[in-house]
Amino acid sequence: MRPFAYQRVSTEADAIAAAAAGARYLAGGTTLVDLMREEVETPESIVDINRLPLNHIRAEGDQLVIGALARMSEVAANEDVRRLQPLIAETLIEGASPQLRNVASIGGNLLQRVRCPYFRMLDAPCNKRSPGSGCSAIDGLNAGTAILGTSTHCIATHPSDLAVSLVALDATLHVRGPDGGRSFPVAELFRLPEDTPNLEHTLQPGELIAEVRIPNGPYARTARYLKVRDRSSYEFALVSAAAALQVENGTITQARIAAGGVGTRPWRMTAVEEALAGKPATRESFEAAAAVSTEGAQAQSGNAFKVKLLPATIVRALEMAGEGA
Fold first, then answer.
1. Which Gene Ontology molecular-function terms are recorded (predicted)?
2. Handedness of CA 39, 40, 45, 47 (dihedral sign)
3. Whose CA is closest to 146, among 189, 104, 172, 115?
4. Could you read off the pLDDT of 293-315 as tens digits, one per residue?
5. pLDDT exceeding 70 applies to what percent of the chain?
6. What does residue 192 show for φ and ψ, rounded to 5 degrees?
7. Which fold has domain 5-50?
8. Residue 29 contacts residue 70 (beta carbons within 8 Å)
9. What is the pLDDT of residue 19?
10. What's the burial of 260, exposed, middle or buried (CB within 10 Å: 0-12/13-18/19+)?
11. What local confidence, expressed as pLDDT, does residue 217 receive?
């Protein structure tokens, strides 16, 4: 690890000023510190934001509000979360080991870097790490890479389980920075790689994630998350699906679906949602709708299995959600 300057702050103003001057935010550090040890990331300055009052978890009107510094374990165990947004609790438990959940923050989880092995190999070309150097995964080991939203410059998947569920639930992100505060859908936080895969999010320099707001829609209390992976714990998704359904008299009136492990960002399945609207809540409807989930998919030599696994995962997630709807 290379030497760096360290600063601990107690106010958002001090944190934002330090980050605007080039410092990197440090919360749980479960991604950043690892990357610094491996010298994949070499920031010259770190600003520790753990003293900021951003660890709140509360029900507010028709929303659940979660501060960016709330730890994953705290959120997963919170009574309001488990009552109003069980999908969030389920996703967090599936997303990491107990040790990591005790340390990792909600904001940090959303901004974690990709887990493509070539990103961490300093002797391998990687456009995320070194723009213009090439993408080793395209002709290399690519079983865990994306089939949706890829480009000729990058095929890495976004690793966050939580982001998938937040996108499915139409959650909103609230950030503050040098120019004040702003809010936008969580889905708009993540960029497609296109020809600049090194730019992964839409935050402006110095902007700090303050909180996430999740609407308590009628479908939220029965939403479910299904994660398919090589082993049962401490593993990233090969394919995952967050599914929420509102069913009235056996007919689907609303559907919210997003997938992980298949896209270069958390992938909202709008075509599947549209195909479900007004249909009976049956396996036949789920299968017909899930069939459109792979439209536009670009498979690689090692990940073509995801073209079949994605629809099957969506169908099972919909069945799970439908059991409580």
1. FAD binding; oxidoreductase activity
2. negative
3. 115
4. 999 999 999 999 999 999 999 99
5. 100
6. -75, 150
7. 3.30.43
8. no
9. 96
10. buried
11. 85
Q: Is 171 exposed, middle or buried (0-12, 13-18, 19+ CB in 10 A)?
A: buried
The residues spanned by each domain of the chain are: 5-50, 220-324
Q: Give the closest residue to 146 by CA, choosing from 128, 123, 170.
A: 128
Q: Which fold has domain 220-324?
A: Enolase-like; domain 1 (3.30.390)
Residue type, 320: M
pLDDT tens per residue across span 175-188: 999 999 999 999 99
Under 8 Å between Cβ of 1 and 37 = yes
Q: What is the mean pLDDT of residues 163-182?
A: 98
> CA 136: distance to chain centroid?
23
Average pLDDT over residues 277-289: 97
- Whole-Å CA distances, 258 to 64, 163, 311: 19, 9, 12
Residue 246: both structure tokens together: 């509102």
Residue 280: both structure tokens together: 């009976």
Tokens encoding 3? 């030497």
